Amino acid sequence: MSKLAVTPHANNFGARIQGIQLQSPLSEDLVNEIRDIWHQYQVVYFPNQPLDHPQLEQFSLSIGNFGDDPYVESIEGHNNILEVRREPNEDIAPFGGSWHSDWSFQLTPPSATILHAKIVPPVGGDTHYADSIRAYEALDAALREELDAMTTTHSARRSYSHEAYKKGGERTGMKILPSEKAWDTQIHPLVRTHPDSGRKGLWINPVYTLKINELAEKDSDELLEKLFAHILKPEFIYEHTWAENMLTMWDNRSVMHCAQGGYNGYRRVMHRTTIAGTQPF
Ligand code: SIN
Question: What is the dihedral of CA 94, 207, 166, 171, to 10 degrees?
């Protein structure tokens, strides 16, 4: 019998997992069980997991190989850990503070993002998640069929080009590495099929999705706006509140997320890894 205690949130979107310590290597059976729970609930979190860098790396590698994390300097000596840090005096939007899926402009965006809370402010600093699978399934059949045939263009330019970086203001807590590479584009299907569950979801996000390729600019903007408004309906959202040492892993293939502010005057520090994914289809 499983030793994991799983507490799902509303609509089976998001679940707490207890009854496990992530500091030591996990058996293959346990990792498979965690993977199944993660596929089912899409966002899973483990409270009370004090982890040092090697332990975070070890847990991440049990889920899969590391992804490729561009545009943000990693922690010295730990190329695959990013520190998401905002200092008490920083007057800038939180890193990841607009709805997005991580690195969706890549050919093979990450399958998972893992975030480990080191310093949590006493107010604010939640992360909100949106369920793109249930949002897709809730659309009427005719629109789903139309969307199934469409493709989109993604790019990092709105966040990581030199121009965007200048406009966005300087971060002191993190070192962002803007680059000409941010102008590259990547074509993806608008609707992607989850490689493990086989369920379809909307694979678009307001930060990196520039346009729907099959539509004129105005029609593309209008449809994207309509779809974003749909995905962000309260019934598709899970609002996650952090505690120190909590580890959260979300399915980047079917979930958008958005870091919340509301903690000016306090420090917030998270350590993040991504797990390599496959090309959306
Ligand atoms: C991110 O977008 O990866 C950061 C999320 C957060 O800090 O809550």
Answer: 20
